[in-house]
Structures are given as C-alpha cells and as structure tokens.
Design a protein that fits this description.
about 725 residues, mainly beta, twelve-stranded mixed β-sheet, seven-stranded mixed β-sheet, 55 strands, elongated, disordered N terminus
C-alpha cells in the first residue's frame, strides 16, 4: 500500500489498494385517472382502426417546422402539404452518429387529426435498446394551435382500443389515439400510470440535460421504460389554417450511462374550483416525500392557464423555487445544481390565481378555458426518483425501481449466480468495524467507516481516547481508502449515522456519550455525561446508535445497560424518555420521518420494536426469532428497511432481512403495520456488527456492505452484490 503523509495533526490523505473478488397521471396533465378511464376501458371494438391518409413531400418534419428562427409562427407556403415522417425514423446523418454512441429520433402528431377544440392525441415509439440515455429534447410546435406537449414512458406497448393510423405518401404509417378517451399508457393488460420525462408549452425551447446527466430509458428491468409516448394538446380542430401544423419532439440519445440520473416529480391538484372576483386564491398540492436521503433540484417547470399568477415549491418554511405560468413553460435549470431537497419532509406546491376578471367560477379541467395547477420538479440523483403528488395526499404515488427480494427464505437455487462477493476490504490500521454509512459528504460512492483501531469491547470501560484515526473513507467505485481522520475523538466506537445535511453522528459505549460532528469532523456537541454510566435523563449507559429527523430532533438507543430510547431537541436538550419494556440491548434504530415511526433493534429478544417518535407508544413488534439476534437496521435510498440478523447461538448463519409491506403512510400507521420478510443468507460472515444497503441502478442490484468486529481487534468489510435481474 502507498501512503502520502500530511500534517500529523490533520486528516491524512491515504490510499490503500484493497482485495477484490468476484407520474404520473396519464390522460392529461392532471385529470383524475379513474374518471378518465371509466368509460374508456368499455369502449368500442379494440380491432377497429381508423386510417387517415396524409400527403408527404419527403422533406421531413424539420423542414415544415411551424416556428421561425426566432421562435415565432412561420407562414405557410401556398399549396404545400404536411409532411408526416414515421415516428422514430432516422435523419440523414443519424447512422454515422449512432456508431459513435449518439443518435436522434423524432416523434410528431399532425394537427389534422383534431376534430374538436381541446383534443389530446398520443403516439408511441418503441426503444430498441435495453438501456439508453436521453440527452436533449427539441420541441417544435406553434403555440397558436398546440397548447402543450408531454412525453411519457410506458412499461408495456400502448395498444389503444380506438387507434387511428396515419399513412404517409411513401407508405410509412404510425398510430395515434385520443388520450382523453383512453389513457396514455393503455395496454392489453389494462394501463399503467407512466412516467413523465418532459413537458412543453407556450413556446419553450430546446432542453439539454448537460454533461454526464440524462434520463435513462429502455426495456431492462429496473428501468422499465421500453416505450416513449408523445401527448399533444391541440387547441383547434383541423382546418386550412392547421394544414401544416403539428406537435413534434426530437430526442437525442446516448449509449453512455450517466452518473447523474434525472427524474420528474409532478405536483398536481386536480380537485378545486376557483371562486370569481378574487384577487388572490391559493391551491396546494402537498405530500410527505418518502425516502432516506436527498436529491438535487436540477430544473423545474410550472404549468397552469390564464388565471394563474405564480406557482412555487416550499419545504417547511423554505421557499425552494417559483415560476410565472404566463411565461414560456420551459424547464428552468436552478442556479445551484447542488440544491438539496430532503426526503422524509412535506413538499408543497402552491398555485396562486387572480380571478377578478371572471364573473363565474373556474373549474379545473383539460380545456384551455379551465385551470390547472402543475409543478414539475426535475431531480438529479444516482438513482431514479419518479413520483406524483396529487392534491393533499398523505403519500405520493411512487414509480421507483422494484427492489424487492422474493419473500421468505430465498432458496439456494434462486441465489445461484445472483449473490456474489465483489470486494473484501481489509487494510492495515482498520480495527473492529463498529459502524458503516454510505453517502459520506454527499458522494454516492463514498463510505464512511467507524472502527475501533486496536481496541475490543470489554465488560469494563476504557478510559482514554484512541490515539489513532477512527474514521476511514472508502471510495467504493475506485476500490480504495482515500482518507483517514478522527484521532483522539473516541474511546470505543459503536454506532454511526450521517444525516441529510451530512453531519456525522456517533455513539461511544465507553465514554457514555453520543456525538454530533460537522461534515469536516469538527465536534459540535455531545449528549450524556463523559465517563459516567447512569439511567436518569442526563446520563446514557453504553449508547448504541443515533437516528436524526428532518426537524433536527434526534434519538439515541440506550443501550447495553438501559432499555430505552432518548429523544433530544436539535440543540441537544433532553425532550423525552421512551422506555422499552422488556427490551434486552436496544442495539440499533432508524426513523421513518413521514410516519414518525422509530424501528428499534431489540437485539437479544430477536425483534424490531415499532415506536411512535412523538410519544413513545408502541405498535406490534416484528418477530425475527427464526433468523437470530437483530444486530443492525438500515435503509436504502428509497426508504426500504433492512435488518442484519445473526443466528449466534445455533447455526451461526448471518442474514440480510428486507422488510416488505407495512404501508406506513402517515402518523399512527405503525400500530397496524404488518410486514413480510425476505431473507438472504450472507456466506462467510463470522462477526457481524453493522451494514449498509445501496441500490445500484446501473446494474439493477443491491450492494450489501457488512462490517465485522473480529476476530480479535481486527475487522473487515465484505461487499456483496445481489442481482435483481
């Protein structure tokens, strides 16, 4: 190994080589799906096909764009005919570009299909690859005839019951359908909600995703987006004036898998009526966003109609973004691309209207004379985070990748080829691994390791701090330890947590303290009394772990010689003591913010206690006796909860347990929660203590990191890859 030494009193920059082994509503922007599909699924014969012939001049849609070079309406040439290329056809230079990993495709719908005002039409395009990234969207439409366009992805091939086939002069054809009559993502199996990936209105221009960033689409499991659908809202029926008009979006694709994954979260309220003659009326869409970490707000877009004056997003008391819905509806990139939005919080979109010029109530609806309330958030993360928040729902409709493991004990036949050891980390100076946490300083690939150096946990307490670094930073992508720090800070490390602001929280079972450090490792405060065990509210007794809420309040599981959880204010003042009757070593805990539920590992009783984080009342515990002692709890990026269990007294087997179900949609739901358990045996683990689970979107797998405390004053970390393909 190579070491570059710096100031001995500061962090060392150390590099070791380590050993490696093997949305959304889909009938319009905001229409209620149930109402929109009630009649559609009982429509006419699905085999009926309407054919519309369109004369094409062969010049391609770009040559007939309805926008001039400055974005204004282009005058129609007398006697010219509309050109309708087949969706997905390549341009003249696309074959060469595709060989270099980039290519473009177009989707369009001619205005000639519209027969009445405010008609919505959709058309679909299959994607040939299992995985590709969309790098840009180029819209082409005339705002006099096209109100808006929205691009969705669908899991199944759209098969409308009332298709219309458009035939071009060279014999090419594609299908369109009325997607107010039928859903956007209608298939032979019914319909799915689809995911919005782009939207346009009022003359917005091209959107580039930027370097190493994009929407990932394709047929591969975990992506589940093999079809793209373009929805176009036409304002007027077909006429001589609309002869050359159309709605079109051109896509630029890349074979390169981006590091920054883009998703759209839609906030929409489709259940309101605006009173007339009011200077200010506000409508909200609000949800507690489920997840364990945060995402960056990359861009946003607002959409409403003529009475709207402003649409904004707030989280708590903080205003995040706002936009004027009377300006072109493009995605506005944020000035700070690293602007962080914390999950586990209430996000609220507020639409503000002025109805003083109206003599009658204004109803929500799809027509341009109705109103809407939509805010699109383009999020950037290392995993996709699609969701839809409707009105004031308790929880959003999630469209996350399916990370579920088959329930109950997974068989050896199923595990064959799915569970592999990717890396074993054993480096000089790393002692027993007390705590692990992915996402150090906001990097998805950096793991912070909290270890005991040359010490072991004994019945008595060590008295002085460890005189070597107790923290290591492991770059799991480059497979090397890149930094060490924390000399003289800990007596005997135990639990490790990183909150959404990247502060570091630890517990120490020999100093009897819980610690809060800033992201650089500077101590902010401690709770408990140094070196003194106790059971009153001022003392801790061998505390084990910390869980931190979005409000800043935090909880400490306490511990080896107490049976309780202590609740503190953000400033470290004691708020509550939650006694856990009969608990035997509360060893780990995690918090679900949206339901205000603490999951507490009652280690020696082989169960997980469900505790109300507000008042300490308990629901029915989760019995894990079949799998052994519950050593640790953790969450992945989507808030899925996992337990690490060790059948210490019998088989010595170690299990990863995934909790499934529960339906914790709001306060008090913990009282009725019921879980299925999916169990995966982790071979080769002898002394498990802590673990972390992260979703690997690029491979559709779970990365499982297990840290061990032994044998003796030594530790190691094993990285397992569990394929979900």
């Amino acid at each position: 190994f190579n070491v570059s030494a710096g100031d001995p009193n500061s962090r060392n920059e150390t590099v070791f080589n380590v050993s490696a082994g093997d949305e959304n509503l889909n009938t319009s922007d905001d229409v209620d799906v149930l109402e929109a599909t009630r009649g559609a699924l009982q429509g006419p014969d699905a085999n009926e096909t309407k054919v519309i012939s369109i004369v094409a001049n062969g010049n391609g849609a770009a040559a007939n764009s309805s926008l001039d070079d400055e974005g204004g309406p282009r005058e129609a040439s007398p006697g010219s005919e509309a050109s309708v290329p087949k969706n997905g056809t390549r341009g003249a230079n696309e074959t060469a570009a595709e060989e270099e990993g980039r290519w473009t495709k177009r989707m369009m719908i001619p205005a000639s299909v519209a027969t009445v005002e405010d008609q919505y039409f959709c058309t679909a395009m299959p994607l040939e690859r299992e995985s590709q990234a969309i790098k840009s969207f180029t819209p082409r439409a005339n705002v006099e005839f096209v109100h808006h366009m929205v691009v969705y992805t669908c899991e199944e091939e759209p098969k409308p019951r009332n298709p219309r086939t458009i035939v071009t002069s060279d014999g090419q054809e594609h299908v369109v359908w009325d997607c107010l009559e039928e859903p956007v993502c209608i298939s032979s199996q019914g319909y799915d909600f689809g995911r919005i990936i782009y939207a346009w209105a009022l003359g917005a221009e091209k959107f580039d995703t930027g370097p190493d960033t994009g929407f990932v689409v394709g047929s591969r499991p975990g992506i589940n987006a093999p079809y793209i659908v373009l929805q176009t809202h036409f304002l007027k029926p077909a006429s001589a004036a609309t002869r050359e008009e159309f709605g079109e979006v051109e896509f630029e694709f890349s074979t390169e898998f981006p590091q920054k994954i883009l998703s759209i979260d839609l906030f929409a309220n489709s259940r309101f009526v605006l009173p007339p003659k009011e200077a200010k009326v506000e409508v909200e869409a609000r949800c507690c966003m489920q997840g364990s970490s945060s995402a960056n707000l990359y861009a946003y877009r607002v959409h409403a109609h003529s009475f709207a004056r402003n649409i904004s997003l707030s989280i708590g008391d903080e205003m995040i973004a706002s936009g004027d819905p009377q300006l072109p509806h493009f995605f506005t990139k944020t000035n700070d691309p690293n602007k962080k939005l914390n999950f586990g919080s209430d996000w609220m979109a507020t639409c503000t209207y002025d109805t003083e010029d109206s003599d009658s109530p204004i109803y929500v609806g799809q027509g341009h004379n109705n109103e809407m309330c939509n805010m699109y958030l383009m999020l950037s993360s290392h995993v996709p985070l699609f969701s839809t928040c409707q009105s004031r729902a308790a929880a959003p409709l999630l469209s996350y990748p399916d990370c579920k493991i088959p329930p109950y004990v997974v068989t050896e036949e199923y595990l064959e080829g799915r569970l592999t050891v990717k890396t074993v980390l054993e480096v000089p100076g790393m002692g027993q691994v007390a705590g692990l946490h992915m996402g150090f300083n906001g990097s998805a690939h950096h793991m912070l390791i909290f270890h005991r150096a040359d010490r072991e946990m004994l019945q008595y307490d060590h008295t002085g701090p460890i005189q070597s670094d107790a923290f290591m930073v492991w770059d799991t992508k480059k497979n090397r330890v890149t930094a060490q720090f924390g000399r003289g800070l800990s007596v005997l490390p135990h639990g490790l947590t990183i909150d959404r602001d990247f502060n570091i929280w630890t517990t120490d079972v020999d100093s009897q303290l819980a610690y809060k450090y800033d992201p650089t490792g500077k101590l902010i405060f401690t709770v408990g009394l140094q070196g003194h065990r106790g059971s009153d509210k001022e003392h801790l007794c061998r505390p084990t772990e910390v869980a931190v809420s979005n409000s800043g309040e935090f909880f400490v599981s306490d511990g080896y010689c107490n049976s309780r959880v202590m609740k503190y204010s953000a400033a470290g003042e004691v708020m509550e003591e939650f006694a856990l009757k009969g608990a035997f070593v509360p060893h780990s805990l995690v918090l679900d913010d949206c339901s205000a539920t603490l999951f507490v590992a009652d280690r020696e009783n082989s169960q997980i206690r469900l505790v109300n984080a507000n008042d300490g009342t308990e629901g029915r515990p989760i019995n894990l006796t079949s799998y052994g002692k519950v050593y640790s709890l953790t969450k992945d990026e989507y808030g899925n909860i996992y337990a690490l269990a060790w059948d210490r007294n019998f088989s010595r087997k170690v299990y990863l347990l995934q909790l499934q179900g529960g339906n914790l949609s709001g306060p008090f739901s913990y009282e009725f929660a019921s879980y299925d358990i999916a169990a995966v045996e982790l071979p080769g683990i002898q002394y498990p203590h802590d673990f972390a689970v992260s979703y690997n979107f690029a491979e559709h797998s779970l990365h499982i990191f297990v840290g061990e405390t032994g044998p003796g004053p030594h530790g190691k970390i094993t990285l397992f890859d569990f394929s979900l393909l």
